[in-house]
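Lab meeting minutes (informal)
Scribe: AK
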Amino acid sequence: MADFWVTEAMNGFGMTVQVEAELCRRQSKYQKIELYQTKKLGRLLLLDGIIQLTDFDEFAYHEMLANLPMFAHDNPRRALVIGGGDGGVLRELGRHPELETIDICEIDEEVINVAREFLPEISCGYDDPRVRVHIADGSEFVKDKPESYDVIIVDSTDPGGPGAPLFGEAFYRDMKRALRPGGVIATQAESPYLLPEIVARLNAVSKRIFRSTGYASIMVPTYPTGMIGACVAGDREDVRIPARPIPPELARQLRYYNTELHRAAFTTPNFVTRLLNA
């Protein structure tokens, strides 16, 4: 088959990737799942036409979304991932021997199935014996888990799909109740270039609920606008400052996250600072 191009288009922006072959196309109960072999970027996963990851740069997003909250906490033992069916955040959490349990709540089991079949280097996190898989709506799952987790990570799709409830204030309040004292959350918080209203709203919600909050920028070339953000918040002094050093063994495994970047990621350009303070 001749090479062809796959395009994500949203809110006047787009990203086009040259692909060599379609590997998988499935319609789950919730969304269309597509997976391609690309010309330059390895494998490419889309949900409802929106790029979720490529082999080329997935490490940047997954390392930051996992390690920002993990190192904002001084002694994390129990972690929950909501969404993240591809397993990338699980893989990064699995590098932390201090974690005793790692729960994942994914609404769409078919995303897990596709990842396990076609993305073994990303979905390998499921092999960790500490991982417990829950197929459920994350916004409902957290409601009956009072003081259960030290870290909650929300690796959601955009607000237009099945991840829509994960962008509401009620969900953030439920996450707060599900945290143990001193707990930290990190959520996929969109790009200020693409969805500034979502960035501003999540920041405002977090400020109302948590003692400390911050918006961290992550450079991901294959996402439209080339970046995405994480909303990090918790009942701690300052989640923007690491609470502990990175163990040397873990530091050698990381390709993106480091202590200096943890601090720097929360330094925002003027237009984003104004957006967050509006």
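Next up, CB showed the second protein from the same session:
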Amino acid sequence: MSLGFIKIMDSFEINKIIAAILLTALIVIGIGKFTDILFHVEKPEQSAYKVEGLASTTVSNTDVKEKVVEKVDIGQLLAMGDLAHGEKVFKKCSACHMVKSDGKNMIGPNLWGVIGRQAGSVSDYKYSKAMVAYGKEWAFENMNSYLIKPQAYIKGTKMAFAGLRKEKDRASVILFMNSKSSSPKPLP
């Protein structure tokens, strides 16, 4: 009987400890809320420090699209690329894409033979409506523009990748993806 009393006592002690922790957390949160009310700080309407020569600008979606679809000499860009570097950078893509001839679709479609293939055309993969509507062939130029920032190039794509900002990274990945095909496209 005394052993059962000790077990009950232990559970009461644990409950007291948990209650003390919760009460402390509530008090700390309550003090924080109370001090926010007590010491209300109004933010100034104008900045106290102005930088000369800066003007506020708004960027529209067409500006972003024009920026993403920059005209580049794709031959010069691809000359910057390196196949081994492309394989290394493609590891970022391999979390969602496979690039094997008999590979399966993952979160994204299998990219085997993607250069030269029509966008949104892998039969056993469910593409976003935006990608199906895009429907162009993946050439070197538009793959480069897409890889800069996919969400800006094809508005509504479900590819949630931030993009590759460095030209060498994009060129290398494009070279790597082109090499992963039964019939790689000739370089421009």
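CB comment: Confidence is low (pLDDT under 50) at residues 59-69.
No objections, moving on.
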